[in-house]
Amino acid sequence: MRTFVFTILLLLGVVATDVRAQVNKRYFVWVGRDMVMENRYREAIETLNILLRADPEAYEGYFWRGIAKYNLDDLLGAERDFTITLAKNPVYTMAYQFRALTRSRMGNYDDAMKDFQEAIDLRPDYPAPYYSRGVANILTRRYAEAVADFDMYLRFNPRDADGYANRGMAYLNLRDTTAAYADFERAISTNRNDPRGYLERGALYMAQERYDEALADFDRAVACDTTYTAAYFNRALARYQKHQLTAALADFDRVLALDPTSSVTYFNRALLRTEIGDYNRALEDYDNVTLYSPGNVMVYYNRAGLYARLGDFRAAEADYDRAIELYPDFANAYLGRAAARFMQRNTKGAEADQRTAERKIAEYRARLTEHGDETSYADTTRRFDRLLSFDTNLSEASLRNAVAGREQIALRPLYKFTLHSAEETPFGLQAVYNTYGLEEMLAALGNDRITFSCTDTDLAADELIRQNAAAEPAAGRSADWQANFLYSITQLLLKQYTNAMTAASAAIALEPQNPYFYLNRSAIQAEMTDFISSMDNEYSHLSLESDRSARVRESSRTYDYDEAIADLNKAAKLAPELPQIYYNRGNLLALSGRFPEAFADYSEAIRLDPLFAEAYFNRGLVQIYMKDTRKGLLDISKAGELGIPDAYAVLRLYGDSAGRTENTDTASSTNN
Question: What is the pTM of this model?
Answer without folding.
Answer: 0.71
